[in-house]
Design brief:
Layout lengths: L7 E6 L6 H11 L8 E6 L5 H7 L6 E4 L16 H6 L4 E4 L2 H7 L3 H14 L2 E6 L3 H5 L3 H13 L4 H4 L3 E4 L13 H19 L1 H5 L3 E3 L8 H5 L6 E4 L6 H10 L2
Parallel strand pairs: 1-2, 1-8, 2-3, 3-4, 4-5, 5-6, 6-7
Helix pairs in contact: 5-7, 7-9
Length: 254
């Protein structure tokens, strides 16, 4: 990562894990991560855990995030959670367009774009996930696929709103599989994301945008990945449920 322009971000994604009765214990164990002054640490937790997690973190620098939101602010959408609800519960970030949301729940690029806009309206920083499937990588169209997702996600955002955006490169074939892109390959895609953003917003804003890697990053491969100039942090799945492993990843940003 290039610390001249960007601060590292390590975001935990608990996914559909950790009941409210378990959240206090795990969050308390995560408090040791807040000692990293040059790194923003975020816990993206199930909506039902937000209040408990926020209470434990009230004296720390660790931020709280949601894992999804609806694209409308209010309405008859039974079972959904709005971005405004997340913000009111204490969230500062929200994950948008995770590959599991796209593949399992049919979220399209248009839905992702609308959710990004809703998050920004509510005062949240969206962590926008983009990535290619294994088939698309084998076909040699990774960059084309990424560019479509990136351009669609930020369509309609002015320069001020764009500054609130974080991206996460998540190769779909690496999510939950234990497979990881090589540091060089991951860096090339993150570089391509930044180049795409530069075309729309210019050199300085794109240079200041944090781009995370989110494909099975763990305490062992984190140092090599985070050493790459265009990888500014990680969106951590399985390892975020293990406090010592997560703390090691945060420490690797140094």
């Amino acid at each position: 990562m290039d610390r001249r322009y960007r601060k590292a971000i390590i975001a935990a994604n608990w996914k559909m894990n950790i009941n409210p009765s378990e959240a206090k214990k795990l969050t308390t164990a995560m408090l040791k991560c807040s000692s990293a002054k040059d790194t923003s640490v975020v816990l993206c937790v199930p909506a039902i855990d937000l209040t408990i997690v926020k209470r434990v973190l009230r004296q720390s620098r660790i931020a709280v995030g949601g894992q999804n939101c609806h694209y409308e602010d209010t309405g008859a959408f039974t079972g959904e959670v709005s971005a405004q609800m997340l913000y009111d519960a204490g969230a500062k970030y929200v994950i948008i367009g995770h590959s599991e949301r796209r593949s399992m729940f049919g979220e399209t690029d248009e839905i992702v774009r609308k959710k990004v806009a809703a998050a920004i309206r509510a005062g949240l920083r969206p962590i926008i996930c983009v990535g290619e499937t294994e088939e698309q990588r084998e076909m040699g169209i990774t960059e084309e696929q990424i560019r479509i997702q990136v351009k669609s996600a930020v369509y309609g955002l002015d320069a001020d709103d764009f500054r609130k955006v974080v991206f996460a490169y998540e190769p779909v074939w690496a999510i939950g599989t234990g497979k990881t892109a090589t540091p060089e390959d991951a860096n090339e895609v993150c570089k391509a994301i930044r180049a795409c953003l530069r075309e729309k917003y210019g050199a300085r804003p794109s240079r200041g945008t944090s781009i995370l890697y989110g494909g099975s990053m763990n305490e062992e491969n984190a140092p090599a990945l985070l050493a790459m100039p265009h990888i500014d942090g990680g969106l951590i799945g399985g390892a975020s449920l293990k406090p010592e492993a997560f703390a090691a990843i945060v420490a690797a940003t140094k």
